[in-house]
Amino acid sequence: MLATSTRIALANPAGVLKPLCEHLVEHEAVITEQDGTTIIALDGSRARIALSANALDVTVEAPDVATLLGMKRAIASHVIEFAPKDTAPEMRWIGDGTGPALPPEFRILTVTGVERITPHMARIRFKGDDLARYDHIDALHVRLFIPPEGVSEPSWPMVGDDGLLLPSPAETRPLVRKYTIREIDTAAGTLALDFVLHEDAGPGSAFAFRAKAGDRIGMAGPGGRWFKPAERYVFLADETGMPAVARMLENLPAEAVGQVFIEVADASEEQPLRHPTGISLTWLHRGDAAPGSLPLLQDAFATIDWPEDGPPTYLWAAAEHAAFKAIRAASRGKLRPERDQNLVVSYWRAGASAEEHVAAKKTEAARS
To answer: What are the distances in angstroms from CA 52 to CA 36, 186, 194, 245, 269?
Structure first.
């Protein structure tokens, strides 16, 4: 086992340790006490935290460097989060896994090919090492670290001696966007991601327009929620949610039944999607209208029959923010709490950048 340790001076260490443990339990950590020491077991690692009047003495053990760094960062970042806002706890870890290193969940991918699968959708294939952690159907999404255009050596995220991410120069710092893994082959070390090509290209779309074999990109994760077992499935999405819907359809049981509605510009943007024979697939064409400007998905949802004694149903929807709000509101009149489950999400917001969209969602969540 590898090991690293640190002493963290705090005015109220007990007030930091308690919420730290509560938070890690939410992420499936197992917390025990032994001879006055708190023991945290998570993802194959173990942390021992001894509490004194003015400090936390922390020792982390793990079978490999990646797992060691993961637990070290989990503890360090949450100590910072739960410490009083006017303090800056210092942490200097000694032992194994010291010195700047890539985060354990981070990979550098190399482009191997670019395919235009529809006029406004590109599939980019990548090669990478040790991709097994990303091959889980219950976590489809990853964060892509897209180098600024013209930067050959971006500042990839690095973990410092304190267990936290080091700051990087703004001019070489990658831009981060969330995407869905469309295909993955861990044995071959390959994966594919689909990119919607916009006229007013954001970082992801701009990268897809210029990508060529040999280009590099960063990836971290995975995350996201997967569909739940049900007797009937209902999926609604626009182009941005289509890769996730496609991946889920391919992993449904052969006997699955349900409905899928996908909004695209026109027939040229339709893709062949593998799905069980009991799933009906309907394409919704908006024509020359701007994406997100027509209530096509909302209208489609209104047509779905939802009998009171019908089969338990799982609803999954992802689209522009206005469609998300309308479908979420309408679903409250159809979903049966004792029978149905759902995940309705806002993937983007018309007229807003990804950063502005995230900020707006946080503001709305705080008001609700």
So the answer is: 10, 45, 51, 51, 62
The DSSP output letter for 55 is E
Give dist(CA 44, CA 55) in Å, integer: 26
- CA-CA distance, 265 to 335, in Å (whole number)? 29
Here the tokens at position 311 are 């089969």
Distance CA 56, CA 7 (A): 6
Q: Closest by alpha carbon to 138, among 280, 12, 244? A: 244
Q: How far apart are the first and last CA of the chain?
A: 46
pLDDT given for residue 358 in this prediction: 74
Flag whether pLDDT at 137 surpasses 90. Answer: no
In this prediction, residues 243-250 reach a mean pLDDT of 95
Is 203:177 a contact under the CB 8 Å cutoff? yes
Beta strands in the chain (DSSP E): 2-9, 30-34, 37-42, 45-51, 55-62, 94-95, 106-118, 121-127, 141-146, 175-185, 190-196, 216-223, 232-237, 257-264, 278-285, 313-320, 341-348
Helix, strand, coil distribution of the chain in percent, nearest 5: 25, 35, 40
Question: In this structure, which amino acid lies at residue 209?
Answer: F
Q: 3-class DSSP state for residue 197?
A: coil
Closest CA to 222 of 105, 128, 316, 343: 105
Preceding peptide of 307 cis, ω within 30°: no
CB atoms within 10 A of CB 280: 11
Q: How confident is the model at residue 180 (pLDDT cuts 50, 70, 90)?
A: very high
Name, in order, each residue with C-beta under 8 angstroms of 69's C-beta and a sequence gap of 6 or more.
97, 101, 103, 104, 159, 163
User: In which band, very low, low, confident or very high, does the pLDDT at 198 lie, cut at 50, 70 and 90?
Assistant: confident
User: What is the full DSSP assignment across 117-158?
Assistant: EETTEEEEEEE-S--GGG--TT--EEEEEEPPTT-SS-----
Q: CA 31, CA 50: separation in Å to the nearest integer? A: 13
What confidence score (pLDDT) does residue 366 get?
Answer: 61
